[in-house]
Amino acid sequence: MEVPGRRQAGDPRIPAIAAPGLDLDQDDCDALTAFVRSLPSPRGEESEDPKEAMRIKAGSAVFKAIGCSACHVAKLGDVEGLYSDLLLHDMSPQLGDTSFYGAFAPQPEQPGPGRKSAAGASLQEWRTPPLWGLRDSAPYLHDGRAETVDRAIRLHGGQANASSQRYAQLSARERSQLEAFLLSLAAPR
């Protein structure tokens, strides 16, 4: 969107194509910012059942212990409960995409590891998605291929492979605790 102080991104190969003008003026931007700021942020829901609360707390510890928190950072800057570093990570060819997006992106003959998309990320690189609201966002992963949290974690590869392997070695109880923690990350009511 073209807004005051920020030009709309264009295709660098066709610089003559530019936005015809502002999509939002400063008053519109201020109103949108105030509205978004007024929305409640997602938070982990605390259970009133003491046993379930302990299970969620134990799951949070498992989340950290197996390395999930290296990329799914709980607090980023002033944002609490985001569970993302918002960085690109290599997630392996198995989790990679098979095509390019974008109106002007050239289509490679054979997409594969190392090929770059129009945005500059390789086809197997993905920005760490925030986990806030995870409970209310199934199916999981960028293309919805994982119907469960368990499946989503097991599909992590590349830079997340070590954490995925540690997850696979957890006891059924520890996996259940981790899932309880992740499913406590709900969208605001």
Describe this structure in words.
By secondary structure, the protein is an alpha+beta fold. It has two domains: 1-39, no CATH class; 44-87 and 128-186, Cytochrome Bc1 Complex, Chain D, domain 2. The chain is built from five helices and six strands; from the N terminus they run αβαββββαααβ. The strands form three sheets. It has a two-stranded antiparallel sheet with strand order 1-6. The protein has a two-stranded antiparallel sheet with strand order 2-3. Strands 4-5 form a two-stranded antiparallel ribbon. Strand 2 and strand 3 (79-80) form a beta hairpin. The longest helix has 16 residues, at 50-65. The radius of gyration is 20 Å and the shape is flat. The protein starts with 25 loop residues before the first helix and ends with a strand. Residues 101-105 and 107-111 have low confidence and may be disordered.
